[in-house]
């Protein structure tokens, strides 16, 4: 027996004075309503109604039960209504996970814009270089750089990631620039240490039709993309930077792309989430907003003509 449903029918019948009317209100047959109340009486071991052919009235036990359950049933009904209303409002908590490397450079400006447009959404953004499982980590939306995530989520590609060797004009003026990949051995280079493994990431190049990896002796190494970018901007070394970090500086002439013919575009930035039909409106709105702001946004990668130039 569904006791909550039976109690709901009991309360409605007591309020309107008729099992038939209660059945209509509940969208069930009179027989089903009568059966539910009889089952409730059997479960409780008491009679709840005095029944005649013309009248339905509460017994003393029925009066006590009605007095006890009405406030709880009203609270439950209010909670259900709130849940339904929240599903149709851009409001409530929203948990987002993203890698540190993408946070400041790509995601944060759009997240702040979303927060300004939808002040009733309580954003909880975690920057974490470990892959986030949405279910176990109780996140609504995740972002990832690399290959598309698997494991029951929907992934949407947002942007390509180009790995571009860059130097500042000041560095080139003092030390010149490498004309080949092998010539990098004669230069000071930065390194990026992966936060999730602690290992220095190799540089990668497109040579012919193959991706080739090189371990570069780093004169300066950091586990933060922004810190590595700052070192390259300061003219301390050459760096291989993700396009999402480098493009604005290249276009403003603060950085010069080197070895452009060897730029790789093997990975991408993805947004991932559970099935849209399971999401409240605030989550769907955030997903659509971020896709609208970031998908193929040329502010974060170079066109082929720009690379050739």
From TrEMBL:
Keyword field contains Transcription regulation: yes
Domain called HTH lysR-type: residue spans: 1-59
An annotated Gene Ontology molecular function: DNA binding
Keyword check for Transmembrane helix: no
Keywords (A to Z) from UniProt: DNA-binding, Plasmid, Transcription, Transcription regulation
UniProt xrefs under PANTHER family: HTH-TYPE TRANSCRIPTIONAL ACTIVATOR TTDR-RELATED (PTHR30537:SF5), HTH-TYPE TRANSCRIPTIONAL REGULATOR (PTHR30537)
Record family assignment: Belongs to the LysR transcriptional regulatory family.
Name listed for the protein in its UniProt record: Transcriptional regulator
Organism: Paraburkholderia largidicola
